[in-house]
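Hypothesis: this fold can be encoded by more than one sequence.
Test: take the structure tokens below, design a sequence, compare later.
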């Protein structure tokens, strides 16, 4: 495969194999325990268990990625990732509570109830590989399979940003920083390891990761990493819709949705995920206002520890196109109710080409939309039923948002606020049905945070593309 690539796309291959100018594996800095701020108290009990068991079995074991980066920044990591020289099968054997996941990117998940510690084996640059059994790329340079194992130095070169290539060694508690990662952390810069265009082609999701981390950490994306994004953004269309959905959760459910959205627009990324929304907000400023206000409100909710469901975010993002499509349907003579139903189906099926929308969010999203008309109507005989509906709270918030951005709905929002105040017993009833955001860290400090998923399944981690 690599050979074939070489002949069909020489320039691309040349870029891909070209050693990274700014980074090489000898470019490592070891920061002794007394020179950095990471204490084992900052690391979750489960992550420590994994690290120690690997060490005891004679393997190298490091904490890597956000776990190291965020602690150094004084933040609480979202999750802990471990990397080791043990092969996935060896890791799996060491932990009864583990499962091997992925075929193209083999990993082990060590599961502690709802907490998952992801263990990855050091990966090497696949351009060294003699056969294509373990590594595979598409014509466009995208990594399809990446199971070539190597040393920690090689592993560092496969990671995306320098600040994500910091390794905390459980053996002596030192931190290894590659390619100036620690300086970039101090200077608040997201710098890609390797040649940016090739790294984005290998995995276009890295473009989303660049803006996500920049927004989350308040970092700047360094120019060579930022410049190619606008042009390469359409490569995201090749990413499976299910992976894109997982990314959408990380982008918009982590408390920095507004800043992330701004960066995404600036870099032509939002249009790849939500093309119809982008078009509508470009053409109509009130749609833009609604999307922006929803993101501001969502960030506020997260900062106040309140619940937030992906169904709400999706219902807002798709609302402009829903209204436009409904209008079109009506202009073709459809009855308003049918026009709405048809528009819902069309808008959802268009969106699913870009991001999947799992049923458990799609149904509530359609309920939020479906309840708007009833909330506006306020038919006396329906009031109790409406307020007792499991989706009332989200639908009411949606109604308030519409009013907040200037829609004239005959003060329906005030009506429902008052109705709830006057009927607390009914509100109690809906509270029981309400979506609940799971405890942030499963009740524990440094535990996992789940992406606003509203069922009780263990958290899903999307596989890293190293
Ligand atoms: P957070 O968990 O806060 O979102 P993170 O940096 O830990 O941030 P993860 O998705 O958990 O991100 O991945 C763990 C590490 O794996 C990253 O820090 C990075 O080193 C590596 N990684 C993940 N995804 C990619 C990718 N697409 N390309 C290269 N490296 C990646
Ligand atoms: Mg992580």
């Amino acid at each position: 495969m690599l050979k074939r690539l070489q002949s069909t796309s020489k320039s691309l291959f040349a870029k891909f194999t070209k050693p990274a100018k700014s980074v090489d594996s000898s470019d490592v800095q070891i920061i002794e325990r007394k020179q950095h701020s990471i204490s084992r108290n900052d690391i979750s009990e489960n992550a420590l268990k994994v690290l120690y068991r690997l060490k005891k079995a004679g393997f190298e074991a490091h904490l890597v990625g956000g776990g190291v980066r965020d602690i150094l920044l004084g933040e609480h990591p979202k999750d802990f990732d471990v990397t080791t020289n043990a092969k996935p099968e060896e890791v799996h054997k060491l932990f009864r509570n583990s499962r091997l996941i992925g075929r193209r990117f083999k990993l082990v998940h060590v599961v502690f109830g709802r907490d998952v510690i992801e263990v990855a084996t050091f990966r090497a640059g696949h351009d060294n590989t003699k056969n294509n059994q373990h590594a595979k790329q598409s014509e466009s340079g995208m990594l399809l399979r990446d199971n070539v194992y190597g040393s920690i130095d090689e592993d560092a070169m496969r990671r995306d940003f320098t600040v994500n290539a910091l390794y905390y060694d459980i053996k002596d508690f030192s931190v290894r920083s590659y390619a100036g990662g620690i300086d970039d952390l101090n200077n608040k810069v997201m710098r890609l390891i390797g040649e940016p265009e090739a790294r984005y082609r290998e995995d276009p999701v890295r473009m989303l990761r660049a803006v996500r981390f920049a927004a989350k950490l308040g970092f700047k994306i360094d120019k060579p990493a930022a410049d190619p994004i606008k042009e390469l953004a359409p490569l995201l269309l090749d990413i499976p819709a299910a992976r894109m959905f997982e990314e959408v959760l990380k982008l918009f459910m982590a408390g920095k949705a507004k800043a992330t959205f701004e960066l995404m627009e600036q870099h032509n990324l939002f249009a790849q995920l939500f093309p119809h929304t982008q078009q509508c907000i470009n053409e109509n400023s009130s749609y833009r206002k609604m999307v922006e206000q929803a993101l501001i409100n969502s960030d506020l909710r997260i900062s106040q520890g309140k619940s937030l469901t992906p169904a709400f975010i999706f219902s807002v993002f798709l609302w402009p196109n829903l209204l436009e499509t409904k209008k079109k349907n009506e202009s073709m003579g459809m009855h308003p109710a049918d026009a709405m139903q048809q528009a819902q189906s069309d808008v959802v099926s268009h969106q699913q080409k870009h991001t999947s929308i799992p049923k458990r969010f799609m149904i509530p999203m359609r309920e939020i939309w479906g309840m708007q008309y009833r909330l506006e109507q306020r038919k006396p005989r329906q009031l109790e039923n409406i307020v007792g509906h499991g989706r009332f709270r989200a639908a009411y918030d949606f109604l308030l948002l519409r009013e907040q951005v200037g829609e004239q709905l005959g003060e329906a929002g005030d009506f429902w606020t008052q109705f709830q105040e006057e009927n607390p017993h009914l509100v109690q009833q809906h509270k029981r049905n309400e979506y609940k955001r799971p405890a942030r860290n499963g009740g524990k400090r440094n535990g996992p945070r789940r992406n606003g998923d509203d069922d009780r399944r263990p958290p899903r981690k999307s596989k890293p593309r190293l």
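Residues 65-66, 78-79, 81 surround magnesium ion (ligand 2) (CB under 6 Å). The first strand starts at residue 28 and ends at 31.
Hypothesis status: open.
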